[in-house]
Amino acid sequence: FGTMAVATVNLRAVTSLVGIARLFAVVLSCIAFSLVASTGFFKDAYGTWCMFTWCLCFAVTLLVLLLELLELYPKLPLSWDDFTSAFSMLAALMVFTTSVVFPSTFISSPCTSSMCARQAVATTASCLCFLAYAIEVGLTRAKPGDISSFLSTVPGLLKVFEAYVACLIFALLEIHDLKPGLQWCIAVYSICFIITLLIIIFTIGRCLSYMPCPLEKMLVGYNALALAMYITATILWPLYSFQNKNRPDPCGRECWNKCLGVTFLTIFNLIAYLVDLVYSTRMVFIRTR
């Protein structure tokens, strides 16, 4: 007699703490984009970004839940733990940004109309969605000494943070008539972003084992180099961006705010690469007993 294939259902995918956090993220992101879509008031660049964030997080998290519920993820040619850790960190960062951008852009004060009330509820759902993803990151983070899933460790999560902050920097850059010092800063942002993104992709795709040199020491060397490069960018960007510019003229208020935003984001990434270097060094050179 032939054997009949039986679908396997893993209920722990939705009953564990991580599964419950993902279910909340799916529901809350769905509430957020549904309420905003019902207003029809989201068609500029900021509104499109917010809708894209909520829809992406809803779709990918729902797919993750289904793949774990039906136990189909082992058949995928990728490191599942690295993928889910990286995405939960990315989703937390994206939803956090959206939870700040959306109300500051679309909600007016006082909030009296029905459309404004829906936007306020959508903002609340977005904030709770960020909390759900933050809880998932905390629950799936690797314990000290466990490096079986690199992107769930502190250095791995910082890699996702560094790449995301670089994307925000690119979104604020206005490239025209740049001085050599600013051109160097853009080169720093671009080089570090590309290498960090490749590390994330190669980790998820299980390709790092093919590297010809010791991976851990290579990462320490890269973090040290990226830190040195970001130190120069932290000094040169504000030095050349605000040179001979008084707020708001002649740069303009929006231009000034973008330069200031890039300055703070550069500092954030500088701190991230510093912490990344410290943790990576401890993982490589200070062995846990």
TrEMBL record:
One Pfam family recorded for the sequence: MARVEL
InterPro entries: Marvel (IPR008253), MYADM-like (IPR047123)
Segments forming a coiled coil: none
Sorted UniProt keywords: Membrane, Repeat, Transmembrane, Transmembrane helix
Domain MARVEL stretches: 13-145, 150-285
Membrane topology label: Multi-pass membrane protein
Subcellular location: Membrane
Annotated transmembrane regions: 20-42, 49-67, 87-108, 120-139, 186-208, 220-240, 260-279
Keyword Transmembrane helix: yes
GO CC aspect terms: membrane
Domain of life: Eukaryota
Principal localisation: membrane
Family the entry assigns: Belongs to the MAL family.
PANTHER family listed in its UniProt record: MYELOID-ASSOCIATED DIFFERENTIATION MARKER MYADM FAMILY MEMBER, MYELOID-ASSOCIATED DIFFERENTIATION MARKER-LIKE
Listed name of the protein: MYADM protein
Protein species of origin: Atlantisia rogersi (Inaccessible Island rail)
